[in-house]
Amino acid sequence: MNDNEKKGFTTTILHSDRLLKPEHGALHQPIHTAVTWGFEDVQGLVNVFQNKAKGYAYSRQGNPTVTALEHKVTQMEQGIATIAFSTGMAAITATIMALIKSGDHIIASSYLFGNTRSILQTFTDIGLDISYVDATSVENIKEVYTDKTKMVLVETIANPATQVADLIAIGDFCEDKKLLFVVDNTMTSPYLFRPVTVKASFVINSLTKYIGGHANALGGSVTDTGLFDWANYPNIAQILRDSIKPQMVGITQIRKRGLRDGGGTLAPEAAHNISVGSETLALRLERACSNAAALAAFLEQHPLVSKVYYPGLKDHPQHELASQLFHRYGGLMSFALVDGVDLFAFLNRLQLVIKSSNLGDTRTLAIPVAHTIFFELGAERRAEMGIPDSMIRLSVGIEDQEDLIGDFRRALEASAI
Ligand SMILES: *Cc1c(COP(=O)(O)O)cnc(C)c1O
């Protein structure tokens, strides 16, 4: 298996650790708990510091267990390099911190994950200029673009209302204007979609979600697709330009300023858990997508349900684009109950489905949106964003389909008004 680039998605992940040749023929990369690394010859240490040799000096900025996971994510995303972080939020924060300067302008989707939206507000408070637009049409991005714009940040499928960003057109626009195009691929994962195909510069993944998959470790990553031309990008340190291949200056600056200085390092034990979880990403997602499609069809025809938000449904506003771009429509969906149904009583009647805020777990999780993840926004912003008070977000898991639909059927029957 030397030409493992040509193997399928799951085969590649399964054999990735082994091909890095860990000791004793181990099939997993070991969990290296060492914080620091010793050198026989001081020149070796110096070379690592001066970017002249690959190696490990201090585990905050690199650890072999974490490297093995980074290598897997790079292969999954078909990029050139990945940096893993302690969480998805750390990956997003580091990417922006490392590449954007005060005076720069960022265009972001107005349907971003709540905590991403919140960290962007913090960046605004310390001097960045950020515009929020409905990213389901590239026209909205063109409208706010200025000669200060450096980055466009979108997600593939938005949470909770499942809007799909105008990814192809935005990628073309970013290429044309030489903008960093950052795509948060968490909701689709590299199994359903590879942002490199729409010319993304960087791909963010919350490894906590589908890639890890079992809700037993937090992690995040940023992958460089290799498509961005750094030659005229102003915010790169000269010392990197002098010592690193031109294609690698962006990701190296994220490793230094974002990871090393920011300190959001992934622990090796967590990297191991995520790495093992990632072996079954394709199997889990196939099953979750099948369950989600069946559940969406069931809920859509139910008299107590007023609306279902799922890109797999024909009446979803971006159904065609989603069909074109994504292998399947994902495991995330939302629905709203008709007026008069007691939302909390309904949720409490669910016996299998867990009331929980995570997503991408093997188990199906439900959360009332307006009261939790979108509570801080206030009623007015929620109304603007089209989030009804009775909206429930579901992260559909891999349970047996009859059990899952049965749980909803029973809870809805008992909630009839
Ligand atoms: C969960 C999530 C994040 C943040 O990831 P953490 O690992 O929880 O920090 C970022 N983006 C999206 C789309 C997410 O769903």
Provide the descriptors you would attach to this structure in a database record.
Aspartate Aminotransferase, domain 1, alpha/beta, 2 domains, single chain, 417 residues, binds pyridoxal-5'-phosphate, 7-stranded mixed β-sheet, Aspartate Aminotransferase, domain 2, globular, 12 strands, 16 helices
What does it look like?
Helix content is 39%, strand content 14%. It is an alpha/beta fold. The protein has two domains: 9-99 and 139-155 and 167-278, Aspartate Aminotransferase, domain 2; 281-413, Aspartate Aminotransferase, domain 1. Helix 1 (9-19) runs antiparallel to helix 3 and helix 3 packs parallel to helix 11 (268-278). The radius of gyration is 22 Å and the shape is globular. The mean pLDDT is 96. The structure holds pyridoxal-5'-phosphate. The site of pyridoxal-5'-phosphate has 16 residues, from helix 4. Pyridoxal-5'-phosphate is lined by residues 87-89, 113, 116, 155, 159, 184, 186-187, 206, 208-209, 218, 220, 359.
